[in-house]
Amino acid sequence: MIDLNADLGEGFGRWHLTDDEALLASVTSANVACGYHAGDPATMRRVCELAAERGVRIGAQVSYRDLAGFGRRAMDVPAAELAAEVAYQVGALEVFARAAGSAVAYVKPHGALYNRAVHDAEQAAAVVEGVRLAEAARGPGSPLPVLGLPGSRLLAAAAEAGLPTVAEAFADRAYRPDGTLVPRTEPGAVLHDPEQVIERALRLAGDGELVAADGGRLRSAARSLCVHGDTPAAARLARRVREELAAAGVTVRAFA
After folding, report:
1. Between 9 and which of 45, 47, 110, 209 could a Cys-Cys bridge form, CB atoms 3.0 to 4.6 Å apart?
2. C-alpha span between 94 and 92 (Å, rounded)
3. What's the Cα-to-Cα distance from 209 to each of 152, 168, 228, rounded to whole Å?
4. How many other C-beta atoms are found inside a 10 Å radius of the C-beta of residue 31?
5. Are 27 and 54 in contact, with CB atoms under 8 Å apart?
6. pLDDT tens, 192-212?
7. Which CATH number fits domain 3-247: 3.40.50.10490, 3.20.20.370, 3.30.70.100, 1.10.530.10?
């Protein structure tokens, strides 16, 4: 069994980057942009309504405040400020998720914040503090899982704080031998060949391993598989990945 997630709602005003309706036909979890790297209130509301209608879990994809750079530029944000901004983003999405008859089911950082929280203990702790603030506002009995890279400072900090953690892998990103992602500034960081992406998804679900850029094998306990929503033909790719997983006897189901 594995969860299939993708980034949704990555537009702003009249500009739309992700094919949200098509992606929601295939994924089981939707990482919804919360307005800091992409997204706006109308987009967040629309995506939450569509996700709730289709039974797709809604996740808050929190980011550095970087609309111009799509949240992919390195930033130095004080820990207290970052924690507040994470809580703010989760809270904003929660309004629309609840209004749609659903709820925010997990939190996943985006872009530069995701990569920074892999190795930066302070920034990871700030993200976790923000999630805990948002969780406290939901009341008792409403845990907020954190989705992140296996072995990251983020998941370690979340576990230490008592938050549920979910390890994820990327079907369409290249990996370094140490299990971290190849930076997007390097050639081959994003995989575009559908057959290569599908092979990676099947290997992960069946054997629990990934192949690094140098050909080495990486063990992975990932429970969720990400297909980026902003890559060309993302919706078609997500549909094929889900079909091939099902054909291989893998149950595709939300972790949350």
Report:
1. 47
2. 5
3. 17, 12, 19
4. 29
5. no
6. 899 999 999 999 999 999 999
7. 3.20.20.370
